[in-house]
Write a structure and sequence with these properties.
two-stranded antiparallel ribbon; disordered N terminus; mainly alpha; globular; disordered C terminus
Length: 322
Amino acid sequence: MQNLTEYPGNATSSRSLSVIIKVCVVVPIFCLFFCCIIVMLHIFASHRQFLDTSRYILFAYMLINDTVQLLFSVLLFLFVMGRVKFAFILCVPMLFVSSATFQNTPLILATMSLERYVAIFYPLQRPAAWRSDRIWIIILSLWLISCIFPVIHYSIGKRDPAVDILSTPVLCKSTIVNSSPIQEMFRAVVNILFFAVVAVVIIFTYVRILLETRKMRQDKVSVNKAMHTVLLHGFQLLLCVLAFTYPITETLVVLHANWLPEDIAFFNYFCFILTPRFLSPLIYGFRDQSLRGCIRKTFPCCSDKVKPGVRGIWKAVLTFNH
């Protein structure tokens, strides 16, 4: 589970301003992200062409998954900031959803890369599970896999006997349910396994598609776009991996700056957990030519007010990305 559950929190008046500033930074950015996601999901729902394409269905699923992950992460952040305590039985489901959705993202990226691989190498004999009307089977499988490991993770831990799961109010942090060394080891192994497997899948699909471009004499445009898409998934995976760099950044900050522990925790949370989650789906969504065209039609006033010179620069940049 990746959120600011290690934030120690402090309700003293001397640090209340710091808490307010942090909340005012996180909440508006999340609201802006949420509005962008709502717009893209509305476009998906209102255009049949997206609902009939497996790639867009998987992307919509990633948008929903990342939105849920960020929602629970921000809620836990606000609860810790406000020192809000509630029963243990209410805390565990929130931590579980945050963990499952966090681990689900790399699985979705691997699946989207495999979808491009299948589309290029089996255009006429696509397996049934990869068709748009059957893709829900793969989505359900991803969700089940991402839920299995958090269940095991929470099951192997030892609960404090002094804590009544129904009545004892606790501050909802990961240390409440992740107290044993075996849990930390299990989580580290699972995270390494998840990201290693996904990295291998993305590298494999990229290399295979790259080799295919040298063989094909026709339809190279589609193959090149697929190759760039897989490469973008690799970049998205790199953004996800940033969430595991907080021990390194924490050490560097401690060595070079005299920050409070809670400030270091917030820095890691905002820079390496929230920001990559904000950027990853937006970069992929606004890069897609079809989706970008629908966004322009949804908000025509935005595109009309752009000066011709600026529009030309953005068009050149977006064309280069494709």
